[in-house]
Amino acid sequence: MQEWDARKLVEEAYAARAYAYAPYSGFCVGAALLSADGRVYRGCNIENAAFSPTNCAERTAFFKAVSEGVKEFAAIAIVGGKEAYLAPCGVCRQVMAEFCDPERFSVILVKNRAEYKIVSLGALLPEAFSKQDFS
To answer: What are the beta bridge partners of residue 75?
Structure first.
């Protein structure tokens, strides 16, 4: 991924975080998902009093894209509620594994607008359960 793409996704993730609904935890998260054809899908976390129906920012972005027919992705940037690198939860990693090549899909973990690191999905979720397990 080119440097300018990563910076743009980071800014998109910050913009998405502004819409987070987190009245229980107060921890707002934003994600910006880059499709293979260059479109960006934003997502934020959406909490619920029952907790189980709560949805993470990453899954919100993926579900928005998939619901519009997009199933190929290049990268995602994730911005948390504090100035610290925020890795996706296990459920979000598994959703990413459903649609993304583990070695080619980049996950941008953002500390702040100037500091982020890029890791592969494969590094975050080695030996993921995948569609190939059904073949």
So the answer is: 34, 106
Q: 66, 24, 65: which is closest to 45 by C-alpha? A: 24
> How open is the CA angle 105-108-113, to the nearest 5 degrees?
155
Among residues 58, 72, 83, 127, the one annotated as catalytic is 58
What is the rounded CA–CA span in Å between residue 70 and residue 4? 23
- Whether the CB-CB separation of 99 and 73 falls below 8 Å is answered with yes
Architecture of domain 3-134: 3-Layer(aba) Sandwich (3.40)
Tokens coding 104? 């080619």
- The ranges assigned to domains in the chain are 3-134
Active site residue 47: no
pLDDT tens digits for range 93-134 = 999 999 999 999 999 999 999 999 999 999 999 888 877 677
Distances (CA, A) of 32 to 49, 101, 126, 127, 128: 25, 18, 23, 25, 22
pTM of the model: 0.93
For the chain, where are the alpha helices, taking DSSP H only?
Answer: 3-17, 57-67, 90-99, 121-124
